[in-house]
Automatic annotation (TrEMBL):
GO molecular function, one term: ATP binding
Keywords for the protein's UniProt record, in alphabetical order: ATP-binding, Nucleotide-binding
A Pfam family annotated for this UniProt entry: IstB_IS21
Highest classification ranks of the organism: Bacteria, Pseudomonadati, Pseudomonadota, Gammaproteobacteria, Alteromonadales
Sequence segments annotated as region (Disordered): 250-274
The IstB-like ATP-binding domain, residue ranges: 94-225
Annotated coiled-coil segments of the chain: none
Name of the protein in its database record: ATP-binding protein
Length: 274
């Protein structure tokens, strides 16, 4: 006489189904399997979340995407030393105690086209990728222009609100990069000196780091930004990096003077006076 189990199997065959005997899995194995699946999903979500956060930080930073260490040509001793300082600065962020211990400032100074902005940008990209450090890159002159326009209370372009937002971001961001500090200017105006000095002092109090980029040497920089502002810089743990190598920018004027073309007596010549 067939058992109930045999009859169920026969019915399954008649319906085109093959019965698979139940496989017992103990609780500990099931728990391990489900935890592994859950951890995999959590890691994937964390990875996607980090990617979105990094993209968001990069979008707000206003950095040149080409300013990376991979694109930086280390063809002179000053750049090699600058990269060494830069990578030490980046590596220090691994230590949370160092981050909380105070405010740190790097001053990059030297002539045009020496790689100052590129090196600063490379530092910023690395800090965003590795530690999700928030970064803001700005030219000082553009902020001062925005500050000036914000006083036009009759303007309809919302300049005042835009300036207040950027000014707050200058205070809050983890790493502030100020480029072209006092470019083409001998001395900042008195109110601009006070404003910049206050920004630096507030960032100092909140343990926020800065990179200042200038074409002045250090003595000229002190005179250009004023004593109050320079005293603010002295309060930081300061790293001074001089860029003195050759310019990396393309030449427009040829090294050899071009031969002057002789003008023929006939034909059109502009601005002729008869």
């Amino acid at each position: 006489m067939d058992s109930i189990k045999d009859k169920i199997q026969q019915l399954g065959k008649a319906l085109g189904r093959q019965h698979v005997p139940d496989k017992y899995t103990d609780y500990a194995s099931l728990r391990t399997e489900y935890e592994a699946l859950a951890n995999r999903d959590v890691k994937q979500l964390q990875k996607e979340g980090k990617k979105r956060r990094i993209q968001d930080i990069q979008g707000r930073s206003d950095l040149n995407s080409k300013w990376t260490f991979a694109n930086l040509v280390e063809d002179s001793q000053d750049v090699i030393e600058a990269v060494s300082y830069a990578k030490s600065f980046i590596a220090a962020h691994e230590d949370m105690t160092w981050r909380r211990s105070g405010a740190h400032m790097m001053i990059f100074y030297g002539d045009y086209g020496r790689g100052k902005s590129h090196t600063a940008g490379a530092i910023a990209h690395e800090l965003i990728e590795k530690y999700e450090i928030s970064v803001l890159y700005r030219q000082l002159s553009s902020i001062l222009d925005m500050r000036l326009f914000s006083y036009d209370f009759s303007a309809q372009d919302n300049a005042g609100q835009k300036y207040r937002e950027i000014n707050q971001e200058l205070l809050d961001v983890d790493l502030l990069i100020l480029d072209e500090v006092c470019v083409n200017e001998t001395v900042l105006k008195q109110n601009a000196q006070s404003w910049l000095g206050n920004v630096l002092r507030q960032r100092l109090a909140n343990h926020k780091n800065c990179i200042l980029i200038t074409n002045h040497n250090l003595a000229e920089l002190e005179n250009a930004i004023g004593r109050y502002c320079f005293e603010s810089i002295k309060e930081y743990d300061t790293y001074k990096v001089k860029f003195s190598g050759p310019s990396r920018r393309k030449e427009i004027i040829p090294a050899q003077p071009e031969a002057q073309k002789t003008q023929s007596t006939g034909g059109y010549r502009p601005n002729q006076v008869k």
